[in-house]
Structure formats: C-alpha cells, structure tokens
Amino acid sequence: MIRRYRVGNPMNTEAVVQELPFETGDLPGWQMDPESRTLSRDMSGDTVVYGLGETVRGINKRGWLYISNCTDDPNHTEDKHSLYASQNFLLITEKGQCTGLFIDTPGKVTFDIGYTKHDRLVVTLEDFDADLYRIDAETPRQVVSELRRLTGKSYLPPKWALGFGQSRWSYLTADEVREVARQYRLAGIPLDSIYLDIDYMDHYKDFTVNEEAFPDFPGFVAEMKKEGIHLVPIIDAGVKIEEGYPVYEEGVQNGYFCRKENGEYLTAAVWPGKVHFPDFLNEDARKWFGDWYAFLLDQGIEGFWNDMNEPAIFYTEDHLKEVFEQLDGMKGKNLDLSAYSEFQELTGTVSNNPEDYRRFYHNFHGEKVRHDKVHNLYGYYMTRAAGEAFARLCPDKQILMFSRASYIGMHRYGGVWTGDNKSWWSHVLLNLQQMPALNMCGFLFSGADIGGFGADATEDLLIRWLQLGIFMPLFRDHSAMGTRRQELYRFDRIPAFRSLIRLRYALIPYLYEELQKAAETDGMLIAPLAFDYPEDSRCAEIEDQLLVGPDLMIAPVWQQNKKGRMVYLPEAMKLLRFRSPGDYTEEILEAGDHYIPYGLDEAVFFLRKGGTLKLADFRDEEEICSTLDLENRGVRIISF
Ligand code: GLC
To answer: 63 in the Ramachandran plot: left (φ > 0), alpha (ψ -120 to 50) or beta?
Structure first.
C-alpha cells in the first residue's frame, strides 16, 4: 500500500507515474518538524535501513550521514557524504515489519542515519517542500515493487549490452580502437562493445566526430559491427561555446541554455573549456537536445553514456573572475597560516562550487527556478532527453543508455554507472554494496568501472573484480587516461581472463532473462541476502554476499592476496566451481559457515535450493566472440 503525504509546496519532478490522492495528517511513524525541516524517527537495535541507491559505505546504511546532492567527486572514500546520484528512497526493516519512504524533492536532502545519534534517523530537507510516499508491504521485495509501480518500469537494455565492454579515456584514433578489438579477438576473449570517451569528438563538442582521428565514422561503426562490436560514444552535458558550431548556435538562438539572474547564459567550463548548459528541465530544450542523438544514431551508433551531468563544473567565468581578483590582492604578501588557508580555500573550491549552482536558472514547467532548487534532476532530465528521443527516433530499437548522475524516475530511461572509482580493493566491495541499493531504486542496469577508473590496476585485482563483475548487468572495464592500461590482454593470465569472460557469456541467458523479468515485474536482479531470508538474523549483517536473480548467490573475494573466504549459507546450497564454461564441479554444502577456497583461475558461486541455472551451451573449443554467437544456442541446465 502506498500513501502520499505532502509537505510545503513541492515541484513536480515527474519521478512518479501514478497520481495518488493526498492523505491528511502526519506521516505515520515519523515526527515531522517544519521548523527544522526534518522528518525523524527512532531506530531499534535490529532496525536495518536499506536504500539510497549509489552512496558510499555498506548495504545497511546505518551509522553515516548521506547527502543527496549530485556531486562530481572522484574520491569515493568512506568520509564522503555525496556521490553522483540522488536516490531518496529508504527501505526500513525491523521486528519482521518493513516499510519504504520515497522523498520526492529535487533539492538537497540529508539523511542522518544514526550519525549524530546512534538510534535516531533524521532526514533534513533543504526546502521543506516534498511529496512523501510511504510504502507498507509484507516483504522488502514487495516494498520495492510498490515503489516501481509508483515510479514506472525500469529501463531494459539490448541484450548485447550484457556482453563485455572495453573502455578507456584516451583511445585517440580509430586505429587504436581497431587494435583493441584485434587484441581481444587474438586473445580469444569475447567483446561486444568498445566505448568511445571524449577523444572521439572534435574538441570535446557533443555530436561531433574528430574526422582526422576517426575518418569515415559510419564506415568505421559498420566495420566494427561486422566483428560483433558496438561502439558506444560518450555525451557530456556542457555544450562548447563556439561560433559556427550548430549545437551551440541552435541552443543560443532558441534560448535553450540555462541563464543567470540577469538573463545572460551562464558560462561554465568543462572539457572543451567554456560551455553553456542545456536546460534539460525545459521540455522544448529537452526535445531539441534529444534530437541531436540522431547525429550518431544515423551513423550506426546504438548506445551512449551520458556524463558530467550533475552537472560537473570546472569553473564558472564569474567565479573565476572573483577568484583572480582576490588572488591579485594576495600577490607578494607573506601568506601566514590564516592567509594561506584563505588562499587554499579560494583555489581549492573553484570546481563544483556550491555558489555556482545558485548562479543559474531553469525554465521548469514554465517557471523560472534557480538551479540549486532542482539540482538533483539535471542528470535525470538529460537522460530523459535521450530516452524520449530514442522512443521518437527509433521506437523499434533498444538503445543502450546509462548515465552518471541520476534521480529516481531516470530508471525509466537508462541505467547508471557508478562513476570514477579507483583500482582499490575496497572499491570491489563498494561495487558489490552499491548494487542492491541501486536495484531497490529501480536502476537495474548498472555497474561500476571494473578494474577501477583512477589509480593503477593489478592483474589479481582485475581478476577478482571480474569474478564479481560477471554477475553485474553492466560489465565494462574502464580506466582513466594516465593510469596503467587495463585491457585484459595486457596481462599474463590470458586463459583465466578468457574463461571468466566466456563464463559471463554462458551466464547471459540466465542474467538477461532475470533482468527482463525484474524489469517487467518490478523486481530486483540483485538483492541483499536478508530480503529472501528475513528470519535469519545473520543475513541482515552480511555485507559481502548477494543474491543474483532468484537462483544464485555470490560471495566474491574482494581482499588482496586472499585465496578463499568465509561464506555464510542461510540454507543448503550447491557450490559451483567453474574453470571454464564446460569444466566445472558441483558440491552440496549444508547451511552454516564455510571456508571456501577460491582460486584466481576459477569462478565460484552458489545455486540456491530449488534453483535452476540456464547456461548458454557451448563447448570449450568453440569460439565465442560476442553475444551474436549466443543466438540460437541451446541452454544447459544445472539445478539443485
Ligand atoms: C569523467 C567520467 C569518466 C570519463 C572522463 C572523461 O570523469 O566519469 O568515465 O572517462 O570523464 O570523459
């Protein structure tokens, strides 16, 4: 059952698709205080708080302060409060009861979940204007599906998007991309997509191609497709300011960019230097920007990733001017402790400065709205621009789409990737812990940069990460310019990588079917153990094992130099140990704690009681290059 309450006078975010009548009175179970702009409640010893989508820390969110404020911050450390996403949904279980709360408000929201006071949950809204949806159901899974009924069906990607993807920021030419494809084929490692980062563009301009580095782009796209490889270009939020550049010219002529108080367009800077931000919240601007995707669709492209859409701001022209003026005053001075701190504060806060988010406005439902009031919708509406355009331009085709920033509601138009993580062991765990929460919020098609985006990956880290990644819908190795190269063929253990990626392809019939079912039935692909074993109090504490679809449980190794790990089985399960898709062993294990050896060259996971695993049926000597090779193949069944 969903009940809708309202505080203040909220804007319509269009996160929900179902219009519900308002209840009167206070939100049951919560204390509401307009003065302090808070909703709060106690938590008992066994209260578990799930949800919030993509955040730092564990599956159980208790014990930290999370702030919904889409932020471009590449350091996803435990001390952070905000990442790229804002998904204001809490799912609370206690004493056999469960309840959900979706706080639909486009501005900043702070979730103090036992941070200030261990047993107190306090939600503070920057503006006390929100639609509050309280969901009561028998089970956590039912709460999740009620939320989805409210907010709409989840986006489903094309099947090829579940194949392996290779990405790197710095594939500078078509030949470099060809070489990546060639090396994968040589190594016998399947590959379905190569991602094109900003380097494919002409001077980082959206909807352009650098003709010198990528000549005859449609021909190149077709050539790769013949090999079973999709090219997936990035699109950034900011539009370069450049005379004669049609996206810029059209945006200016039609008034589609965000303006400042004085009516001028805001000038910010991102990769191309100075840009304007399209006003995705304005329906006409959204349609216009969406139509530009046709520039690449018409050249054979079938997938995109939307980036920098928090929006990330390197600097604004106005703020930079202020900074330089103040720095001028510091020139030649002896910078003592306080003056130096001032200097640091000045120079260290040029990017993503909160003041800058108050400098520009949107035309939202015909009203002039200051950006910070609707900040968390920006990435959502950019991706919506794309999703709505795909439905118009190619209604019969599924287009791959995922975004960096997000808000609930965006799950109807695309998935997410979790942004600029690092090649750290702790980020293998973070990837695992973010997935169930993303699923709860409707973002079924999601994943992290496997191997880590920033910092240098090692072979063992990459293998362990892939052993988790083979169960994640978005399965992409991506890394930053300047870091150690981490395409799989660059390491020694080619046979291990080959077997692992081939196993992923064998798992696609199961994964895609379950993803489809989850999208259709408003369910989850990836869930915490406690969702299916509510009676078993141990499960509420398990932070590094997951349920994948109804039949599988995974318990990946995420620590350096571990040759195995302790695994908790809430019931008897069948342990499956694969050395390749055709070479595996099975062992039935009783409920309880087990030490499970887990070699670098294998994939270990668990089939649940009554479970059935459908594997694509191919023999070890058969070549599998891409998802195309899975078509019309039979399935092999393993059951327990
Ligand atoms: C951002 C993205 C990253 C991309 C880079 C360059 O940092 O998160 O994935 O590689 O921009 O476009």
So the answer is: left
d(CA 196, CA 346): 35
- Sorted by where each begins, the domain ranges of the chain are 2-151, 418-441+460-475+499-640
| Equal fold, 2-151 vs 418-441+460-475+499-640 | yes
Active site residue 388: no
Between the CA of 225 and the centroid of ligand 1 the distance, in Å, is: 24
Ligand 1 pocket test, pick from 195, 307, 478 with the greatest ligand atom count within 8 Å of Cβ, gives 307
Fold held by 2-151: Immunoglobulin-like (2.60.40)
C-beta of 169 in contact with ligand 1 (< 6 A): yes
Ligand 1 centroid to Cα of residue 479, in Å, is: 9
Tokens at 180, concatenated: 């990546």
- The rounded Å distance from CA 146 to ligand 1 centre is 34
Q: At what angle do helices 283-292 and 378-393 cross, to 10 degrees?
A: 60
CATH number for region 418-441+460-475+499-640 = 2.60.40.4040
Q: Does 379 sit in the ligand 1 pocket, CB within 6 Å? A: no
- Would you say the C-alpha torsion 158, 163, 168, 172 has a positive or negative sign? negative
Is the Cβ–Cβ distance between 200 and 170 less than 8 Å?
A: no
310, 514, 522, 544: the active-site residue: 310
* Whether the predicted model's global pTM rises above the 0.70 cut: yes
| CA 236 to ligand 1 centroid distance, Å | 9
Q: What is the pLDDT of residues 573-601, one digit of tens each?
A: 999 999 999 999 999 999 999 999 999 99
Closest to 547 in 3D by CA, of 579, 566, 565, 570? 570
pLDDT tens-digit readout, 409-459: 999 999 999 999 999 999 999 999 999 999 999 999 999 999 999 999 999
Catalytic choice (420, 449, 477, 544) = 420
Residue 96: its pLDDT value, please?
87
